[in-house]
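Shift notes (night). Ran Flagellar biosynthetic protein FliR while the centrifuge was going.
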Amino acid sequence: MLTLTSGEMNTWIAALLWPLTRILGLIAASPLFGNSSVPQSMKISLGVLLAMMIAPAIPALPAVDPMSMAGFLILLQELLIGLSMGFAMRIVFAAIEMAGEVSSLTMGLGFATFFDPLSKGRSSAVSQFLALIATMAFLAVNAHLVLLEALAESFISMPVSATPMAAGAPLELARWGARIFSAGLQLSLPIVAALLITNVALGILTRAAPQLNIFGIGFPVSLGVGLLVISMSLPYLSAPILNLFNQGIEAARSLPRAGAARTPPPAPPPPPRS
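Came back to this:
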């Protein structure tokens, strides 16, 4: 007759619960898996499936009761690790969306806003357009599979442990967050530069011919030049967007390494006595 002890049941629960928490954290915060249009049942099913595939290959788990306070702290730490990895990739899409926002404001499309189901807020038309292009590129280059691979590798670089996470991971995530502004400005720079030249030309034209209605011709000219520059720059956006994807995946890989607790170096041996 088979008998199961409470210790064996706790071990089985912990072997699935703790990896599942990290996986669900990444799925909830990542740009593609965490989209609100994906049903919650699909997200949970994908997380359970990945946990069943990854759990047998991870290092030994700490001998801690998952129902105790120590087990709850491990659960919370795994959730934070998964959320930080998914948020590192979400920053890439935020940078692309910021490029669209800057371009829309420069073109005069600040009033053309739509509801964004991902951020639960309003975003401009150009921002939505660039976000859709980035999503299709994300799927075309299989970056979502590489992100899942980085998630599986994180259980080796930072295994499930009762040791608190080091302070390096939040610091690295904060530094990576600054990439939103730099990358967003770099992506929108061609449109901003072209529209700046257009506005200077319109200003010179207004001074040369004061009878022209600048408000009547300025908006359609700025809008037309902006759309023309976007259509011309689209073929050249693939390289910087792929570079951002690579940087985001590398940031997601480096966060568990930065958060892993580093063992102090051994103390030097005492000097020999004379």
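The radius of gyration is 25 Å. The chain is about 70% helix and 5% strand.
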